[in-house]
């Protein structure tokens, strides 16, 4: 097994939206899709129900990281939605600690859904974490 065939044990997720890099994130959740099925029963045939595929549904993607200077880039992207929503193309790259790309996903017609910042409390000193959630309408292969 070569080095390039080894599974990525520790990765970060680098996000770009229309060529603008939003920085690296520690966690990425929600990459996936599902086929929506419609159930139809046939008259006179009581032994089964037909499962008909209708459309694909894409889940929202959530990315989290400790606060960095790149937080400002995310804030600018969200603020740009106030002047009109423009759907964009985003790319997420899973990279190893030394920067090698392990996998990548292209997301079509991306819009930001939610940003949540850290909770500050002197009673529980934790790392200040931010999370963004984005919606999309499908995947595109390549960069």
Automatic annotation (TrEMBL):
Among InterPro entries, the record links this protein to: CHP02241, Phage_T4_Gp19
Its Gene Ontology molecular function terms? structural molecule activity
One Pfam match: Phage_T4_gp19
Q: Which NCBIfam families match?
A: conserved hypothetical phage tail region protein
Name assigned to this protein: Phage tail protein
Q: Which organism is it from?
A: Actinacidiphila cocklensis
